Fold this protein.
Amino acid sequence: MSGAGKKVADVAFKASRTIDWEGMAKMIVTEEARKEFSSLRRAFDEVNSTLQTKFSQEPEPIDWEYYRKGLGSRIVDSYKEYYDSVQIPKFVDTTTPKYKPKFDELLVELKEAEQKSLKESERLEKEIADVQELKKKLSTMTADEYFEKHPELKQKFDDEIRNDYWGY
């Protein structure tokens, strides 16, 4: 197996173990996004499987003696010499170093956006709870109880009454 192929297969295998597919799936809210996500996961699994099967196996060695018997040693030796002289260049990754800083910046932005989103979600959940509580109590709540929770409204109404502004 070539060194570059084995390295690619090893990296793909490690990447598949570190991806939290279930965690990401829980964050998806729309049906269209779920379809896209499952398509991405299926494509990733197919590529990973291909890399594991193609690059994890050593090629079978050539049985030069078998060909010598049928073709003659002179031509087989010539092919063997050419075969042995073939040098497969090592893969040099020039792309990853170029995009790694950009990827790291995006990860930082992602973490910030995640924190912002969690705070906003928390605020909205609290607001929903307050509205639901208000909805339950609204039928039995007095004006004084309402103004106790919303002093700015009490102040506004008091100012309007004091200034003889009755809304028309």
Q: What stands out?
A: The CA atoms of residues 9 and 51 lie 5 Å apart. Residues 95-137 form the longest helix (43 residues).
